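fyi for ur records
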Amino acid sequence: MVSQKNEGLSLMFMFGMFIIDLLNYLKKK
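which gave:
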């Protein structure tokens, strides 16, 4: 259970970082 929860959190974190990078890329453009 715990490992599964951590996996979900890490996945959400990676997704959030991807969104931030995408927004920064669009701003530079």
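The chain has a mean pLDDT of 91. thats all i got for now
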